[in-house]
TrEMBL record:
Keywords: Hydrolase, Signal. This is deoxyribonuclease II. It catalyses: Endonucleolytic cleavage to nucleoside 3'-phosphates and 3'-phosphooligonucleotide end-products. Its EC number is 3.1.22.1.
């Protein structure tokens, strides 16, 4: 072999070794991120907590299905959502077990229109979630569970009120700069932040979060907004948010028309529910019954989750969010996080057993 070729081969081998070691170190770092069932960092995950009351039998109320990019379909978790193990518990333990909430090197916020322990107060957005980040990256957990998560000092507590109905949660890992956009979006939601910390080193970058932590409603230039959010792994989401000044059904009046697709919507069905709507070019139809891959069947009125999928498979739209199709919530702020990932779409579209046509 010629000397020059040997040098090139050695140089390439060293470069490859350095690259492999770099990525290994990157994946091994203790950056804040969504965590999977094995407590490993993941780009995103979704859980579907099953309702207690199903068709033909009563469940535990704390079992759930799990989905991330490493699995092809819903997987029944071996953990219960009321235990600190599992995806949600592992993710929030970065705030709880490490006592990160006492650190000046990170930001966190817990929000829920029905917070744990505290009394309900009108005026806040119908939205629930948590975020934790430092100057490198962090996670955003958006969910539908009232009175959750618990205050950091109390550790991980899943509320009894979250056992009866079905619930969903979406966790996404973002780089720091993406949180600047996300916090601007949260301004439209006006979440009830009941526990938070924004140290001085972050306050210039996150002025709206500082205001929200103080219960101050940031000024808005419009009544709604749409932004693209990109995860650490490059997964693209479109985030729709509306303030209370946009008085309309977010699914029918806005999202279906912008995405140009008919939507099947799963939301909590109680008194005041809006009927399926075919009055606009793109229609919105209420889901009636869910059938999960594990032969679990349940009616939509036992499901507190809020999500929608495109009726036509070729559109591949799936959104998870905050708002029910409910008359009272026309006047509430809230949002939807939409994906065009075929894996996520298939997982949700297949569970639609029946819906109510117009």
């Amino acid at each position: 072999m010629q000397p020059s070729l040997v040098r090139m081969t050695v140089h390439f081998s060293l470069k490859l070794l350095v690259t492999v070691l770099f990525w290994h170190c990157t994946l091994s770092r203790a950056d804040f991120s969504c965590r999977n069932e094995a407590d490993e960092p993941v780009d995103w995950f979704i859980i579907y907590k099953l309702p207690k009351y199903r068709i033909n039998y009563v469940g535990s109320g704390v079992d759930y299905m799990y989905l991330d990019s490493s699995v092809n379909d819903w997987k029944m978790s071996t953990f219960m959502v009321n235990l600190s193990q599992g995806a949600v518990g592992n993710t929030l333990s970065q705030l709880y077990a490490r006592k990160t909430y006492e650190s000046e090197d990170s930001v966190y916020a817990l929000y829920n229109d029905a917070p744990p322990v505290l009394d309900y107060i009108k005026g806040y957005g119908h939205t629930k979630g948590a975020l934790l980040l430092d100057h490198s990256q962090g996670f955003w957990l958006s969910h539908t569970v009232p009175r959750f998560p618990s205050f950091p000092e109390r550790g991980y507590i899943y509320p009894p009120s979250g056992r009866v109905n079905g619930q969903t949660a979406l966790c996404v890992t973002f780089r720091y700069k993406q949180f600047l956009t996300l916090v601007e979006q949260l301004s439209f939601l006006y979440p009830r932040i009941y526990n938070c910390s924004v140290p001085a080193a972050f306050s210039t970058d996150l002025p709206q979060l500082v205001q929200l932590c103080k219960g101050i409603k940031p000024s808005l230039t419009s009544d709604r907004n749409m932004q693209q959010l990109v995860s650490v792994g490059g997964e693209k989401f479109v985030h729709f948010v509306k303030s209370e000044r946009y008085v309309d059904d977010i699914y029918t009046g806005w999202v279906a028309q912008v995405l140009k697709t008919d939507l099947l919507v799963e939301s909590w069905q109680r008194e005041g529910q809006l009927p399926s709507n075919c009055s606009l070019p793109k229609h919105t139809m209420n889901i009636k019954r869910i059938h999960l891959p594990t032969s679990v069947w349940f009616q939509s009125y036992h499901d507190h989750s809020k999500w929608c999928v495109s009726q036509r498979p070729e559109d591949q739209v799936i959104c998870l969010g905050d708002l029910n199709r409910d008359r009272a919530q026309l006047w509430r702020s809230g949002g939807l996080t939409c994906s065009f990932n075929p894996l996520i779409y298939r997982a949700f579209r297949q569970v639609v057993d029946s819906y109510i046509s117009c």
